[in-house]
Amino acid sequence: MLLSEMAEQPAVLAGLIEHGGADAVSASGLLCAPDIHHVVIAARGTSDNAARYAKYVWGSKLGLPVTLAAPSLHTSHGTQPDHSGAAVVGISQSGQSPDLIAVVESGRRQGRPTIVITNQPESPLASLADVVVSLRAGPERSVAATKTYTATLMAIALIAAQSDRMAAISALGTVPDAVAEVLDAASRIGAAAEAFGPVRDCVVLGRGYHYATSFEWALKLQEMAYVLAHPFSTADFAHGPFAVLERDFPVLAVAVRGALFDGTVEMLHRIRNERRAHLLVVTDDASIGLPSIEIPSIDEWLSPIPAIVAAQVFTEALARVRGVDPEQPRGLRKITKTT
Amino acid sequence: MLLSEMAEQPAVLAGLIEHGGADAVSASGLLCAPDIHHVVIAARGTSDNAARYAKYVWGSKLGLPVTLAAPSLHTSHGTQPDHSGAAVVGISQSGQSPDLIAVVESGRRQGRPTIVITNQPESPLASLADVVVSLRAGPERSVAATKTYTATLMAIALIAAQSDRMAAISALGTVPDAVAEVLDAASRIGAAAEAFGPVRDCVVLGRGYHYATSFEWALKLQEMAYVLAHPFSTADFAHGPFAVLERDFPVLAVAVRGALFDGTVEMLHRIRNERRAHLLVVTDDASIGLPSIEIPSIDEWLSPIPAIVAAQVFTEALARVRGVDPEQPRGLRKITKTT
Q1: Out of A46, A56, A71, closest to residue B70 by CB
Q2: Identical topology for domains A2-173 and A176-321
Q3: I want to staple A116 with a disulfide (CB 3.0 to 4.6 A). Which of A90, B113, B137, B304 is the partner?
Q4: What is the Cα–Cα distance from A153 to B84, expressed in whole angstroms?
Q5: What is the CATH topology of the domain spanning B176-321?
Q6: Is A65 in Cβ contact with B82 (below 8 Å)?
Q7: What is the per-residue pLDDT across B122-147, written as a single tens digit (0 to 9) for each?
Q8: In A, which residues are within 8 Å of B82 by CB distance?
Q9: Which chain A residues touch B222 with a CB distance below 8 Å?
């Protein structure tokens, strides 16, 4: 089930590009209205990682600061944050969680525009939205979200692309093929996972657009393979966590060509040379001189989609190496209703 | 040096309450102006954890949504986020980091009010601020920040308290004594650390006001004791990380009486009963029936100050149990200049 859902990703992404345009135009129209100066996003778990991607993409492409909401301020402290100047966005595969509903409701009550990105356009959360962006990913049954995560990233990118139609929209078209190429390399990626079989914990590093990738890869490692993975921004890593690294400590990282590439690669070399960590880098530049999983090179801002697919394939293989069934994580439910 | 800086905290906090009022009144005036609808905070490392506290305190007491800035959007992607409706706040012990300077500068260029909370009121960052809130903590030489973290929380609380002067300001006065009481219990807290001596990694849980505590405690564990500590919101923990817990896995947590207390305690009981984790809870309610470090009970929104001091004492003791010198973390520098 998990593998088949992972395999659907190129088709899901292509379908969203083909059929999601009208939703994205409406959402973009709300976000780019002259009275919108920032965006508040409410999300949990995997969707919160997608919100981290939105923070960078909408920040860089639309110039909009993105706040990740603190839902407990609404549900437990009863506060009504001032949403003046904001658009309020909920992101949720299932559209069920009461705390997310509370945030989007508060935006609605204050007369602010609301957008919901969801795989369940008939859900309670979606019913509160001025614009619903439907993921059209089909049912996702695995506890570990894969196709709904990449579809959510694509929905966020599709909304951003409306502000700069021609160049950005044609770049989106490169994503499904890049993802298919990663999936075709599954046996090569799975081989890289073998050396990490005995690990109990690891660090996952990414920065900028790939801050989201580090969090989502870490979450997959926890859910699917029971590895206690710790996500960090490569920039924050120098502020303390660097000291933790012992020789052979497993470090997974993403380094993709773009604005942050040189700094990231420099830090990764320090991690290998000074701390002798056990490093593996997902990259589109095999010339970095570090152990790597190569992914196709596409525009930096879209690279979190093929990068996380490489991470999914790696993690699914790692789970099997570790004798864990990634279909049935112990103690987890598909839908979590936080209040 | 570390222990003496930790021991200074009651005096530093009392001094800030006594002498920081004028700074806080000015900062509060800027934040509560009618054209301010949200706050953007730029910070890294320990100061970023203080920003997480500000997100909850200014969210609940001032109704202001707080965005943690993505500094790399400014420095590496060259984006100029729209700061309309925002006050821009920089938090930094040293006031040196170029990426934080870039964020506060962008606020200034857009004519937005700027506030800098720093221990170095003559720093480059402070020179950009309309209002400087000086921590008055004296020089901090240890790499691991202790007194500047609690002073930053107090500065944030002092600013929030201006909106509701009498009740809130008198509550602030309870903090230095509560911190002194925690420091006096060092040998009892240190004894609790002994059982955690052999750990390599752990989870640190907190929620709401204590989301910041979980991050800052985890950072201290990394820097001071080389424990790979992983902070989580208790609410997010059910979304995946719960599956990772093996029998006897070390879990540190904060559970303080208030709006989120019952839900947090329920999750902690599940962690102990279903996963048989090795649990230790910093709490102001010893009746929860879980292994705990008790701290004095003060207003929930101020409890992150005594709670993190208990965590500092625990972690310093743990470092010594582990044979690590917490004064000299390997590979770290006191001032990190991220670009």
Answers
A1: A56
A2: yes
A3: A90
A4: 26
A5: Rossmann fold (3.40.50)
A6: yes
A7: 999 999 999 999 999 999 999 899 99
A8: 37-38, 63-65
A9: 240-241, 243-244
For the record, the structure tokens of A170 come out as: 């044609």
pLDDT in tens, B295-327: 999 999 999 999 999 999 999 999 999 998 887
Cα-based distances in Å from B125 to A30, A53, B139, B158, B254: 35, 28, 17, 21, 33
CATH topology of domain B2-173: Rossmann fold (3.40.50)
Does the pLDDT value for residue A175 go beyond 90? yes
Q: Cα separation of A38 and B70, whole Å?
A: 14
Is A100 within 8 Å of A70 (Cβ atoms)? no
B19 vs chain A: nearest CA distance in angstroms? 30
ipTM surpassing 0.85: no
Among A31, A316, A39, A23, residue whose Cα is nearest residue A154: A23
Q: Is the pTM of this model over 0.95?
A: no
Residue of A nearest to B235 (CA): A338
Q: Do A59 and B79 make contact, defined as CB atoms within 8 angstroms?
A: yes
Please state whether A215 falls in left (phi above 0), alpha (psi between -120 and 50) or beta: alpha
pLDDT surpassing 80 at residue B109: yes
Would you kindly state where each structural domain of chain A is located, as residue ranges?
2-173, 176-321
Q: Which of A70, A201, A238 sits opposite B59 (nearest CB)?
A: A70
Of these ranges, A53-67, A316-330, B223-237, the one predicted with the greatest mean pLDDT is A53-67
Which of A142, A215, A222, A224 to mutate to test binding with chain B, by most B CBs within 10 Å of its CB?
A: A222
C-beta neighbour count of A286 within 10 angstroms? 12
One-letter-per-residue 3-state SS of chain B: CHHHHHHCHHHHHHHHHHHCHHHHHHHHHHHCCCCCCEEEEECCCHHHHHHHHHHHHHHHHHCCCEEECCHHHHHCCCCCCCCCCEEEEEEECCCCCHHHHHHHHHHHHCCCCEEEEECCCCCCCHHHCCEEEECCCCCCCCCCCCHHHHHHHHHHHHHHHHHHHHHHHHHHCCHHHHHHHHHHCHHHHHHHHHCCCCCCEEEEEECHHHHHHHHHHHHHHHHHHCCEEEEEEHHHHCCCHHHHCCCCCEEEEEECCCCCHHHHHHHHHHHHHHHCCEEEEEECCHHHCCCEEECCCCCHHHCHHHHHHHHHHHHHHHHHHCCCCCCCCCCCCCCCCCC
B201 contact residues in A (CB cutoff 8 A): 200-201, 228
- Residue pair A59/A41 in contact by the 8 Å Cβ criterion: no
Q: Which strand ranges, in their side-by-side order, compose the sheet holding A131-134?
A: A66-68, A38-42, A86-92, A114-118, A131-134
Alpha helices in A110-252 (DSSP H): 147-161, 165-172, 174-184, 186-194, 211-225, 234-237
CA distance B2 to A325: 46
**Record: contact B243-A329, CB cut-off 8 A:** yes
Structure-token match 């640190």, residue found: B204
Closest-CA residue of chain A to B270: A331
Closest partner residue to B338 among A72, A235, A275, by Cβ?
A235
Would you call B67 and A64 a contact, using CB atoms and an 8 Å cutoff?
A: no
- A117 residue type, one letter: I
Q: Is A82 within 8 Å of B37 when comparing Cβ atoms? A: yes
State which residue of chain A sits closest to B72, comparing Cα positions. Answer: A208
Helices A174-184 and A165-172: crossing angle, nearest 10°? 20
From A243, A241, A239, A281, select the one nearest A261 (Cα to Cα).
Answer: A281
